[in-house]
């Protein structure tokens, strides 16, 4: 076991889905997996391994923000030999044409986080998705007739920003939406030469003010889960 994950070696599959919410991880396992087995309850960050369409796959919550997802992904990669990390998260739209419940593939992640500034001595690093996972996700979505949007997303260290209108400076440059984890996930994956992809469902809109409930975010974003599971 690692510091934050109580699983034994071999308990976690090479492909893992990573929702921020541990209760979404529990829902995914109970809804989509055959014979799910819980491998982690430390800090209430539920993790499960089960079978989907004959293939072994895992799911585990990561919490909110770059520091949290960075800790869990580092341990999953270095202690449990995970090779494919697929974030299945919620996001806030920055664009009029990106609507509630739309699915977004994150090609790259801009950020206001200081983590990579520290890591790269003040230089900018551009965290990007794994091409093979990205391409396969597009193919899966086409086969399932699930519409997608793809592009740059913004990973923020702040959820409640003082300046609500600040999103507009990012939207002008084509950024589709905001989350709090993707830049961290893509950076850690690149560091360890493994594959990562973020699939997001729009849960709220900074443009229109629309939003979904916490329960809806936990249990109704099925289409992105179906895409992610096929990548296993």
TrEMBL record:
<dbReference type="InterPro" id="IPR035994">
    <property type="entry name" value="Nucleoside_phosphorylase_sf"/>
</dbReference>
<feature type="domain" description="Nucleoside phosphorylase">
    <location>
        <begin position="16"/>
        <end position="223"/>
    </location>
</feature>
<dbReference type="InterPro" id="IPR018016">
    <property type="entry name" value="Nucleoside_phosphorylase_CS"/>
</dbReference>
<dbReference type="Pfam" id="PF01048">
    <property type="entry name" value="PNP_UDP_1"/>
</dbReference>
<comment type="similarity">
    <text>Belongs to the PNP/UDP phosphorylase family.</text>
</comment>
<keyword id="KW-0808">Transferase</keyword>
<dbReference type="InterPro" id="IPR000845">
    <property type="entry name" value="Nucleoside_phosphorylase_d"/>
</dbReference>
<dbReference type="GO" id="GO:0004731">
    <property type="term" value="F:purine-nucleoside phosphorylase activity"/>
</dbReference>
<dbReference type="InterPro" id="IPR004402">
    <property type="entry name" value="DeoD-type"/>
</dbReference>
<keyword id="KW-0328">Glycosyltransferase</keyword>
<protein>
    <recommendedName>
        <fullName>Uridine phosphorylase</fullName>
        <ecNumber>2.4.2.3</ecNumber>
    </recommendedName>
</protein>
